[in-house]
Amino acid sequence: MDVYGLELKRGQLSSSSIWVTHSGDGSKSSYNSVIAGWHIHQERYGDYRPHHFILIGRQSYSEIILLNLNSDQWQDKKGGDWWVYYGFNSVPTGVGYYPKSLFTSMAENANQIKLGAFAGTDRTVPSPPIGSGALRNSGQLGRVASFTNLCLVGQDERNNPITGDLPSVVSNNQCYSVTPVAHGACFCGGPGGCM
């Protein structure tokens, strides 16, 4: 996941992240999620630098770019805990986990994994840039933010590369864009400016 610093206006938030969720029985109290990524939020941190964040619970944002990885069973074999792995072009290494006791419906499995970007803004402020601020069709493809080496780590702790395209959602195609997934990578982002 590429991470860029952006100078945002007061009231704006820009982020790239990964969601692991379970929709539960449809009620808000049964919805579970873990969201991890990078965001820029000047009002929270007092600067325009990207900061790593992790959220457990439910979040809603106004502008969104998502790629959906649907599954019936996403759970780690180590007692049902949700492990975090890292590794760039290498064998994934477990660095920690979320105990299954933190969750209700996600204690057994997740039914959706998403990756992408989101933006938030006060109603009177235009939407902020996402990624590098460049659109995929802007002629600046080398500058557009990307997700690369996309793979899932299964219960067998092996990489499962994502090679095919995924369903996507873009809230406003004039302000943001996402490319199809090809060879385990995609590009997403945009300049924002929507009201």
TrEMBL record:
<feature type="domain" description="Neprosin PEP catalytic">
    <location>
        <begin position="1"/>
        <end position="195"/>
    </location>
</feature>
<dbReference type="Pfam" id="PF03080">
    <property type="entry name" value="Neprosin"/>
</dbReference>
<protein>
    <recommendedName>
        <fullName>Neprosin PEP catalytic domain-containing protein</fullName>
    </recommendedName>
</protein>
<dbReference type="InterPro" id="IPR004314">
    <property type="entry name" value="Neprosin"/>
</dbReference>
<dbReference type="InterPro" id="IPR053168">
    <property type="entry name" value="Glutamic_endopeptidase"/>
</dbReference>
